[in-house]
Amino acid sequence: MDAFLPCPDDGPTASPPPRAAASSSPSPALSASERDLYDFIFSGPLVDRIGHTKEKVAGSIDWWLRCGVQVARLLRLDERRLSEAEKARVYQFYIPVFLWCEDQVVEHRAKYDDGDDIPPLVIGVSAPQGSGKTTLVSALDHLFQVAGRKSATLSIDDFYLTAKEQNELRDRYPGNALLELRGNAGSHDLQFSVETLESLMKLTKEGIKMKVPRYDKVKAFGGRGDRADPSVWPEVEGPLEVVLFEGWMLGFKPLPNEVVKAVDPQLEVVNKNLEAYYDAWDRFIKSWIVIKIREPSCVYQWRLQAEIAMKADGKPGMSDEEVMDFVSRYLPAYHAYLPKLYKEGPNGSKPDHLLVIDIDEGRNPICG
């Protein structure tokens, strides 16, 4: 793995090779190290589920190695000395998910004729806080870029109300802890969401550019947050092929009022607010990745780990009590909406365009 060639773009050995027929054993001769990687890839839970055969993986093992190096370097890992956990994250999680996304993009673009303006495919990534969705999206975005596809990333966080508007929301619902701070349905600027996503859909030609919004959750107002100044928003340019849109509550569906009241009476207004979110977000998403957890309590542990790591790096972090208070404002929505999300899929999703990934408490994919 010392020598490295970047993942190719649109040439004959470009982005992931086409699907091959199933085979019981790899047809190309593999070196010992390649065979070890091949066996490792197939010991994971995802490669079979995304439809990649043993023959196909064996025939593209060099591609896997090259992209593995790209992801390792993105994550600032030593690609020559990956631990078992790091190897699993790269070769059993990120790359298989990228291959599934790539297939979704190819299918999406095949629906159009030559010369058509093809809007980007919006891939939604619905995953609880702390589950690793931001790192996953970064890896997918990086692999799309090195494969020659222009992509953009968005988070639902980028559409939070401004600090002033958030204060007004809090004042409209005094005593409702779920709307006191940003996070739950009602704390987003949905019109701004629609305008941004519609503009991204129009980035179909060379030279068309736009800035993508970002939210400052760290420096603004002592961590309470505010929309970042447009001068620091990243710029994307057409023709855009993929938009990766991630968020902890993407795909949540409103529930009968009595159901949410039984979870937490404060959820009633949040549930009502959620009715507008399909038109603002979900209708734009054509392919979905859902990261599925066993227990919402994992969110608390993951957040606690993140704060400990931040403080170890000399950065300000929340105390254990502050973490519990912060997470408690999201747990009612998790308890109310995750069961339906996991049973039915996200709002507007179709089975052929939905990848559900069960993860364990270490954020590793497992057999569902």
- End-to-end gap: 32 Å
Say how many strands there are.
Answer: 10
- Give the quaternary arrangement of the chains: single chain
User: Strand order within the widest sheet?
Assistant: 2-7-1-8-9-10
Structural class: alpha/beta
Major sheet characteristics: 6 strands, mixed
> Unreliable runs, pLDDT <50, ≥5 residues?
1-14, 18-25
Would you tell me the overall average pLDDT? 88
Strand proportion? 5-15%
Backbone CA Rg: 21 Å
Apparent shape:
globular
Give an account of the 3D structure.
The protein has 368 residues and is of the alpha/beta class. It contains 13 helices and ten strands. 41% of the residues lie in helices and 11% in strands. The radius of gyration is 21 Å and the shape is globular.
Structural features:
six-stranded mixed beta sheet, 41% helix, 368 residues, 13 helices, alpha/beta, two-stranded antiparallel sheet, disordered N terminus
In short:
This protein is α/β, with parallel strands linked by helices and about 375 residues long.
Topology:
Elements lengths: L31 H11 L11 H6 L1 H14 L9 H27 L10 E6 L6 H14 L4 E5 L7 H10 L17 H12 L7 E3 L3 E2 L9 E2 L7 E3 L4 E6 L9 H7 L3 H8 L2 H4 L6 E6 L4 H16 L7 H9 L2 H14 L9 E6 L5 E2 L2
Helix pairs in contact: 3-4, 4-5, 11-12
